[in-house]
Amino acid sequence: AKDRGKNNYQFYTDKLHGLSSRKMELENGLRKALEQNQLMLHYQPQVNLETWKIIGVEALVRWVHPEKGIISPAEFIPMAEETGLIVPLGKWVLKKASAQNKVWQEKGYSPIPMSVNISVRQLQEDRFIDSVKQVLFDTQLAPKYLDFEITESVMQNSEKTALILDQLKELGITLAIDDFGTGYSSLSLLKHFPIDKIKIDKSFVDDIIHHSNQGAMVKTIIDMGHNLQFDVIAEGVEEQEQVEFLLKNGCVVGQGYHFSRPLSVEAMEELLIKNNEG
Ligand code: C2E
Ligand code: CA
Ligand code: CA
Ligand code: CA
C-alpha cells in the first residue's frame, strides 16, 4: 500500500508538471500572439428570425497559431482570464471590432451594433472605462453601435460592477447578459444592473428540439424578459423547429449555425452587402 501511495504520488506530480508546463507554453504563446498579431476576429450575424435581416454582429476572437492553426477561444480565454492576459487581449478585441464596425459604416452598409464579449476580469480593471472611451475616440464609432456581452455565470453582484456598468450605460453602450439562465443569480442581476438585453443560453435553446421540457424554460425566459422590458435574443439556433418555437413564443432575434457560422471579415461583408439589398 505504501508503494502504491508513492507511485500515485509520482504519477500525480508528473501529471501536474505536464499540466503546468503545457499551461506555461500556452501562456507564453498567447503573450507572443498578442505581440505578433496572431489574433483575429470572426463575426457571426444576429438576425431577425422572420426576415433573416441582420440586426447585429458578434465579434469572436481566434488565435491563428503558426504551427497549430486556428485555436478556439474556449481553449485560451479561461487561461487569459486566469493570468490577466485577458486585459490586453480584450482591449485588442474591442479596438479591432469597433474599428471594423466603423469601416462597415463607411462602406455604406446599414449601421448595426457590434457585440463584444467582455470578461469580468476586464470589466473590473481600473482603467477599463478610460480604455473604452479611448477606443470610441480613436475609432470614432458612435457608442450606440457597441453592445457588451457579459457572461452571467461569472458576473458578480457587486457594487463595483454596478458602478462600471452604469458608466458604460451613460456612454451609450448597450449591455447584454450572455448565457442567460446558467448562473444562479439571473434575476438579481437584472434588478441591480442596467441591462438592455438577455441572451438565452444555447442549452435552453437545445431543449426545444430535445423536448426535455418542451422548451418551457425558453418560454419562461422570453416572457419574463419581455415583461421586464428587455430585448431577448436566442443563441445557438441550429434548426428550423427552434425558429418556429421562438417566433411562436415572441422571441424575434436569434443567432446560430442555422443562419450562419462565425465568418471571416470578407465573408461577413458579402452577407452585409446582401443585407443592404434585401
Ligand atoms: P459565447 O460568447 O457564448 O459565443 C458563442 C459561441 O457559440 C461561439 O463559439 C460560437 O461560434 C458558437 N456558436 C454560435 N452559434 C452556434 C450554434 O448554432 N451551434 C453551436 N454548437 N455553436 C454555436 P466560439 O467562437 O468558439 O467562442 C467560445 C466562447 O469564447 C464564447 O462563447 C465566449 O465566451 C468566448 N469568447 C470568444 N471571443 C471572446 C472575446 O473576444 N473575449 C472574451 N472575453 N471571450 C470571448
Ligand atoms: Ca457572447
Ligand atoms: Ca453566449
Ligand atoms: Ca452559451
TrEMBL record:
| Native organism | Mesobacillus boroniphilus JCM 21738
Of the intact sequence, the residues represented are: 316 to 593 of 596
Q: Give the protein's recorded name.
A: Diguanylate cyclase/phosphodiesterase
Q: Which residues form the EAL domain?
A: 23-276
